Amino acid sequence: MKASQHALARYAISFAGVALAVALKWALDWWLGNPAPVHLFFLPLLLVAWFAGLGPSIASAALIGVSAQYVPQSPGFSLVASHLAPQRLCFFFVQALILCWLAAARKSAFKRIHETEQLYRTLAENIPQLVWVSSPDGDTVYQNRRLSEYTGPRLEKALGSEWQQVVHPDDWNAVIAGWRESLHAGYPLEINFRLRGRDGCYHWFLSRSTPVRNDQGEIIHWFSTATDIDQEKRAQESTARLAAIVETSEIAIMSKALDGTITSWNQGAQRIYGYQAEEVIGRHVSILAPPHLQNEPRELMDKIDRRERVDHFETARVRKDGRQIFVSLTVSPIYDPQGHITGFSSIGRDITARKLAEQRLKLSEAEFRAMFELAAVGQAQADLQTGRFTRVNHQFCEITGYSEAELLGMTFRDITHPDDLVADLARYRSVVDGKSPHWFSEKRYVRKDGSSIHVEVSGTLVREVDGQPGRTTAVIQDVTLRKRMQEALRESEERFRIAANTAPVIIWIRDVRGHSTFCNKTYTEFIGCTLEKVLAENWIDFVHPTDEQFCRDTFCSALGSRQAYEMEYRLRRADGQFRWVVESAVPRFAPDGSFEGFIGSCVDITERKWAEQALRGAFVELELQVADSRCELEAVERALDSEKTRREQAEDVLKKLGQP
Hints:
The chain is of the alpha+beta class and about 650 residues long. It contains 21 helices and 22 strands. The protein has a five-stranded antiparallel β-sheet with strand order 4-3-7-6-5, sandwiched between helices. A five-stranded antiparallel β-sheet has the order 9-8-12-11-10, with helices on both faces. A five-stranded antiparallel β-sheet has the order 14-13-17-16-15, sandwiched between helices. Helix 2 (about 40-50) runs antiparallel to helix 3.
C-alpha cells in the first residue's frame, strides 16, 4: 500500500511539473508571439527525473511531446497546432529520454553513495572505537559520537593544541612524530598512547590510521580509529609487575609437577636455598629436605590432592652449602582450564632468623626470670591503669614485709606513705598519659609491721608487641640505711660548720684544682668579702705579690705528692694590710680512696713575726755590746801583759843588782 502511494505521488509530481512547464511555455509563446524552443522542457524533465525517477520522467517527456504540438493563439488565448516536424519531435524525445536516464542514474548513484555514507556513518557512530576522518593535511573533518563524548570539544587540528590537550604529555612527542612521518610517507600508522577523557582520567588506546586513496593513488582522507586497551594495558602491566615481583621477591617461589619435579625457580629461591635455577629445574623437590624429612614434600602434595590447605607450614630445609634453615611453606594447587590439578606452587619464607630470635627470646626470658627473682634489689611489675602488682620478686617482699600472694592483691598506693602519695601519683600519671617514658622517685613505704622505710623507685613504661602501653616495671632499693648515714653526715657537717665558723683561726677546704669549696666565717671576715666571692675567686689573689710564686709552687708540689704541707706567707686583710700567716694543710681522701684535695687552716703570726724581728734586733745589739766588751778586755789583757813584762824585767834587774 505504501509503495503504491509512493508511486502515485511520484507520477503526480511529474504531471505537476509538466503542467507547470507547459503553462510556462505557452505563456512565453503567447507573449513572444512565436513558439518557444522545446529545449526549455529539459530543465523540468531533469527535475522530474531527479525527484520522481525514470518512469515518471519518461511519462513527462511523452506529455511534453504532445503539448509541444500546440501553441497559444491570441486573441482569446486559444491553442492551435504548431505543425512541429516529426524528426524534430523524435530528436527531442530521444534527447529527453537520454537526459532523464542520466539524471535518474545520477540520482540513483547519489542515493547509493548517500546510503553507503549513511551506512558507514551509522557503523562509525555505533562501533565501540573512537573514529575520526582527517584530510590529507591532517585536519579533522569528521569524528564520531564516542570520540566527542570521550574528549569533549571537536578536535579540529590533528596536530593542533586540541589534540595536545587530550594526549598524555609523556606520549605527545611520540604521537606527533609518528603522525607527521605517516603524513609525509603516506604509510599507515599504528601507535599506543594515553588519551584524556572528560573526567580528566587517561586511558590507553591503540590507534590505527589508514590512508584512503582515489583511483590515481592520491590520499583523499585518513581514516583513524582508537581502541580502548586500558584494561588490557593495565592487565599487562599488572602481569609484568606480578612477574617482576615473583622474580625479584625475597620469598622463595617455585612450581612443581605432579611428580614433585621442580619446573620454575625464582631469585628468592636462589637466595634462600643457594641453588641456581638451572641446578634444580628438572630435579625432585626432595633435594631440599633434610634426611629425616625426605618424605615430607610428597606428604604435603598428597594433602593438596585431598583438598587440604597447607598454609604457613613451618619445617626445616637444607641449603646447597649443607646448612640447615627453617622455612614457612604455603603450597597451593595449579589448575588447568578444565579444573584439573596440573602441578603445585610453593611459597617459602626464610624464618631462620625468627626461629633463632625465638630461641634467644626464650633464653632471654629465662635469664630475665632468673635475674628478676635473684636480684639484690626489689623488682615489681604493675598494671598500667590500676597500678595493681602483677609480678614481684623475693627481695621486694623482703623490703615490704608482705608475701608475694599478698602483694599481688595490692597496688603501689597501698604501701606508699600517705605524705608521699600525691607527688608519687603525679609522677605515675605523667607516665600513664605518655608525657614521660619513665620516672624516678624517693619516697617512703609503709611495711606490713607499720614501720616506714625510705626507698628509691626507678620505673619505666613497658609497651606491648603492638606498641600500645601495657604495664610498668620498677626497680626498688631500700635506702633507709643510706638515708640515716646521710642524715648523720649532714649533722656531722653541720657540727663541723658550726665549729669551723666559731674557731678563732681561718679554716678552708680546696679541691684537686685548688678552688676553694669551703671557707669559715673567720676567713670571710679576715678577707672582708662575702662567702660567694671568696669561693668564686682564686685564693692566690689575696696573697702578697712577693709570696705568690712561693705559695703556688708549694701548693702544686703538695698536690702532686698528696702530702701535708706548711708554709708562711702574707695575706691581705680587709683593711688592705698584709698579715703574716702560717698555713697548715692535710690531704683529704674519699671513702673509696680517691684524692679530693686539702683541708687546712691559717693562723695570724704577724705579732710573732714582729717579736722575732725585735728579738733578732736585741740579739744583734747584744752581740755588738759583747764585741765592744771583748775589745776592751783584750786591751786590758794587753796592758796587763805589758805590765807583767815590765815587772818581770824589773825583777830581773833587781836580782842582778842584788847579787854580790
